[in-house]
Structure formats: C-alpha cells, structure tokens
Amino acid sequence: MTERITNKPAGLYCEALWELYVLLEDLERPYLKITEKETFLWFISNVELTIGDKQYDFDSIANIDIPYHIETVTICLRRLECDKEITYDLEISMNTLYRWKTTAGLLLERYHASLPSEEEIDSILMKNGIPLTYIEKDPVHVKKRKSYKPVSARYSDRILYLMDFFDYEKISYRFDKEGDIPRFTMIYDIPEIANGQLTGSIKFLKDHAEFKLCIAVEDMEADRIPELLKLINHINSEAVVMQNWSISRNEDQIFYTPRFFLSEEDDGTAVTASTFINYRVWEIVWTTNDYITKDCPSLLASLAHPVLGFANGELTLEEAMKEVDALTQQTVPF
Fold first, then answer.
1. Helix ranges restricted to H, the chain
2. Do 299 and 187 sit in the same domain of this protein?
3. Residue of 9 and 161 predicted with greater confidence
4. What angle do CA 261, 264, 269 make, to 5 degrees?
5. Degrees (nearest 5) of the Cα angle 205, 99, 301?
C-alpha cells in the first residue's frame, strides 16, 4: 500500500481528483460498488494519485505546441469469487488540456461506480473483510477499463464532458438522436426568463456541432413580427461587442459570436441564437463548454427584457433598441 498524500500536490490541476482521493482515503469502510454489466461490491485495498509527465499537443491553427499532462487516481480493488481472488485497477484520469468542471461523485458515476450504503455493505457475504460471491460459472476476470485518449478529444468525449458540465451546472438535458445525428436538448433555469422559455439544443454533425438557444416568444401579435425582425438585426449588429455577458470572462468570447434569427419551433415562435462550433476549435478552446452552459445563456438573459418586453408590448422598438445599445456600453476589455 502506498503512503497517503496529506497535502494537495503543487502540480495537481484537477480539484475533483483531489476531492476523490481524499474521499476514498477517509472511508471508514473502504468499499466501492460498480454496476457496469453486473453489480459487485469491491474492497478498496489501495488508492494512488499520480501526475504524468509533461507532453505537448501541436495546435495547427496557432502553430504552437500546447503543454498538458495526465492526472490519475488509481483505485486498487479486490473481491472473492468462489474463493478465488479477483483484482481490478480502476483508473480515473483527467487531461489538463481539457479544462472542465466536475465533482468526485460525477467522476465515479462516469465509471459506473458509487459508494455503497451501510446496509449494502452489511448485506454482502464477507471473508476476512473481502466481498465474497458464489456463482455456478467460471470466475469473471475484469479487464482494466480503457482510459480516454490523452490528446485529441474523441467524439464520445465531447458528449461525456458536456454531460458532466450539465450535471455540475444543474441544467436539465436529454441526449438522443435525430435520425442518425446525436443531439442534446436542454432547458435552462434563468431568473430573467420564465421557467421553460429558454431552451437549447446541440447537434453533432460531421465536422462541427450546431448549438442553438431559443427564447420562446408567446402571444405576440402578428403585426409586430416585422419590427421584431428589425430588433433582431440590431442585436446581430451589436452582438460582437457585447462582452459584458461573459460570466467566466474566458476566451470563448473571441472564438464564438452567436447569430440571431426568428424561428418557428414546436411550441411556437422563438428568437434563436445559433453558433457553429468547429471540432478542431473545440479541442483547443478549453472554455467552449463554459460558452454552452454559462456564457451564451448569460447573453440571452441580458437580452430577455428588450426582446420579451417588445414582443409583449411593454416596450416600443426604439426603447428595446436603446436597451440593447446600453448593453454594448458595459463592455469589459479583453
């Protein structure tokens, strides 16, 4: 068993991995439940935290090498099956090239793992503290889980990273397919916009992802649509300088500027912000997930009053345009 690390290593980037390491080391009853394919309770015999060597990924757009390293928590597991010991090293790794937020619980969940309850532990047959099962077939030898590619984000990685971001930010989402196209549909809980009126979607196309956010425009008189289009055109002309909307103050403002248009959705008319996200840019711009979960929704929240205020007749076109202009005067320099 390796000696416990008492202080967070200076070179460790991922807070969630440190949280996970401390959580597992502090367990009074060191057991882990894994539910992939079959559910088994495992004894945690050791926990290791390692920081890999510095590596480089070439950025063909900026023509530079970007440094990164892999951080890993390895959970050494044991159980008995028909009195034969089975060992399994569960490796939970993070690549510092991808800066995303998560928690210890979400990291375990990604690997179909969780901490068992006291009742679950007490209900399992043990031999010298090691979970014991008897089955009528040959013992199952668990293979080590293949870790994520360390450099180039795989197609499935983007989906998993987004799920973690949605869970962390408490954004309701559903993942399914539209024909053969994988997609997310989301509902954002924004105080400035009535519940359920700000919805989003992400479609994973061949070379890029299409990200849309929609503000539902309800009960608007048809004769106001031409002027609403003028307001949308005005927003498009000013959106590039609306830097005040970024919550995270990240560089995603430089790479992504949404374009606005009027759309017909399933539930009626909506003002839609659309952004095309190139996969190569997504790999390089670490804050793309912040743009999807926080920054672009924040922009829509800022625009909610002028857009909805005009749509329901509270504001004239001129008043709504002035509110949009006021947003551009609150810019934050890069």
1. 15-25, 104-110, 118-122, 155-168, 225-238, 252-255, 279-284, 288-290, 296-311, 317-328
2. yes
3. 9
4. 85
5. 70
Q: Residue holding tokens 């008492």?
A: 6
pLDDT score of 292 more than 70? yes
Can you tell me whether residue 57 is helix, strand or coil?
Answer: strand
pTM: 0.57
- State the pLDDT at residue 157: 65
Residue range 153-177, pLDDT digits in tens: 445 667 777 888 888 888 888 888 8
Residue in this structure with the two tokens 């090239």, named with its chain if needed: 97
Does 183 lie in the same domain as 119?
no
Q: Amino acid identity of 308?
A: L
How many structural domains is the chain composed of?
2
Q: Hey, what long-range contacts does 124-130 have (CB within 8 A, 24 or more apart)?
A: 124/41, 127/80, 127/83, 129/43, 130/43, 130/78, 130/79, 130/80, 130/85
Residue 105 lies in a domain: yes
pLDDT at 325: 86
In 128-255, the DSSP E strands lie at 130-133, 172-178, 181-187, 198-204, 208-216
Residues 6+ apart with CB under 8 A from 284: 59, 61, 62, 66
Which residues 6+ apart lie within 8 Å of 149 measured at CB? 157
- Residue 306 tokens read as 């002028």
pLDDT of 84: 82
Pairwise CA distance, residues 97 & 89, whole Å:
24
Range of the domain at 280: 170-328
At 253 the pLDDT is 57
Please say which residue of 133, 156, 180 terminates a domain: 133
- For residues 120 and 60, give the distance between their C-alpha atoms in angstroms, rounded to a whole number: 51
**19 lies in the same domain as 124:** yes
- ∠183-70-96 over CA atoms, to 5°? 60
Q: How many other C-beta atoms can be found within 10 angstroms of the C-beta atom of residue 157? A: 15
